[in-house]
User: Fold this.
Amino acid sequence: MLLPFFQWMQDLAFSAYFLNSVWPTPIVQCIHLVSVAVFAGAVLLVDLRLLGTGLTMATIPQVARAAQPWLVWSFVVLVMTGIPQMASTATKQYYSPFFWWKMQAVLLGLVVTFLIRRHIASKEEGYYGPVWPKVVGVTSIALWTSVTIGARLIGLLS
Ligand code: HEM
Assistant:
């Protein structure tokens, strides 16, 4: 169903320019990977705090508030640098099961991070009992890890 859209992206003049020039791809990939590092750091600070470790000198809402702008802006940069990479290799991405694995994990990760975890991390420790914050922290780590594994497998196996 999405194949015509991916073919349209592949046929854009922009995609040909991006693929046939020397610098755009490595520069955009570097920015994508630096943003992955910032995003992973912002995710982990909160997840580890939910698991009862890491920045225990601050409360959970304090850690979550401090990490939020890094989380949001690094994700914005990930999307902005992900789209040109996706467009310029659109047919490869379309036929890669790892691309779809990554996108589904990104969607789930967004729901867990920006809806469920945000809600849990806005309350003081103990409000949701000892178990739920840990379940959410582990789930968030697992989902974002699976995004990065899926992403790397696109390059390795597609
Ligand atoms: C919706 C936003 C995103 C889009 C459209 C996107 C798209 C892409 C594309 C097309 C590639 C190149 C894959 C290839 O052909 O080798 C890539 C690489 C990668 N992305 Fe993303 N991405 C997005 C978000 C993310 C997020 C949220 C993470 C991690 C938290 C991430 C981590 C990576 C990693 C680790 C690579 C592999 C780089 C490499 O192998 O050199 N991406 N992304």
